Amino acid sequence: MNWEESRKDLTINEIVFTIAPRINAAGRIEHGVKAVELLIQKKEDLANFLGDDINEQNTTRKSLDALITDQALQQIENDESFINRKSTVVYHPEWHKGVIGIVASRLTDKYYRPTIVLTKSNGHVSGSARSVKDFDVYNAVESCSDLLEQFGGHMYAAGLHHEGRKCGGV
User: Fold this and answer.
1) How confident is the model at residue 1 (pLDDT cuts 50, 70, 90)?
2) What is the C-alpha to C-alpha distance for residues 128 and 142, in angstroms, rounded to an integer?
3) Confidence at 27, pLDDT banded by 50, 70, 90
4) Which of 6, 11, 67, 137 lies at a 20 to 30 A Cα distance from 103?
């Protein structure tokens, strides 16, 4: 039986909770081109190979997410100065850039305060920021724009690339 004969209609849950996270993981862990190649692939054996690879990347993404979240939580819990802060900024040079946004979201959910998770990437510090209701994290990051190579986002989320000097405002 070929793929066309075995094809079935997908449910929204299958797309949202099974397919989309794997497509997203391809871009977070390696490169999103693999997901595009999979989606347009006409050869079943190559599609299966790409699908298996992307599934492995999703497993890697989950493992990195859990590990980095645990490490970030340890940084916070092991430093008493974090207790009364109005924001959280954590850094580790070896965290995977592709998952720091997920980690920032988890930390924001746990502590309910604006959070920036930073790591080293291509010789510079890269970060992902998440916010809470009524705090514009984009404006906070923008206040440091003279120290940043790049930044972007919106009120509740932002990404940044830092030259390595101190940044005030958050």
Assistant:
1) very low
2) 13
3) confident
4) 11
Q: 83 versus 47: which is more confidently predicted? A: 47
Quickly count: other Cβ atoms within 10 Å of residue 109's Cβ.
11
Tens of pLDDT, residue by residue over 87-126, are 999 999 999 999 999 999 999 999 999 999 999 988 889 9
Spatial neighbors of 40 by CB under 8 A, at least 6 apart, are none
Mean pLDDT of 52-61: 91
Can you say whether the dihedral through the CA atoms of 124, 129, 58, 33 is positive or negative? negative
| CATH for the stretch 84-162 | 3.10.310.30
The ranges assigned to domains in the chain are: 3-62, 84-162
Task: At 149, give phi and psi (nearest 5°).
Answer: -75, -40
Q: Which of 43, 25, 45 is nearest to 35 (CA)?
A: 25
Tokens describing residue 139? 């404006």
Q: Which residue has the tokens 């092991």?
A: 78
Q: What is the largest CA-CA distance in the chain?
A: 62
Please state the φ and ψ torsions of residue 3, each to the nearest 5 degrees. -60, -40
Element (H, E) at 144: none
